Amino acid sequence: MLKTITNIVANPKLLIIKTMIGATLIHYMEDLLQLALQYIMPTILAIIADLVWGLQAAKHREERRTPTKAIRRTVNKFIGYSCWILFSASIGITYNYPKLPAIMMSIVFILEGSSCINNIL
User: Fold this and answer.
1) Which of 19, 34, 70, 96 is the one with CA 20 to 30 A from 81?
2) What is the CB neighbour count within 10 angstroms for residue 37?
3) CA-wise closest residue to 108 among 58, 55, 44
């Protein structure tokens, strides 16, 4: 590790290149997270609504409800939807199409909305 640091400091061109690459990646990740978080937060509400109505539907059908199954399914939905929104935000930033995460969030709302309506009925 010390040898690597010594090589970087001893070679100013390498130091400049690594600093520029690091700064670019940090800036990209900051933009990505700022864009994605504003679309991930509303999806959390949709996932929670589906969880609540799913639990009520299971209670109405007198099914056995286990907290671990409900938590596992909810966490899996959150991770899956967050990955799709992050992916669409990344593509949107790369190709200058900022509406792509909004489209993905709309798809999530359609999926969760149909699940909620199915649980209500």
Assistant:
1) 96
2) 14
3) 44
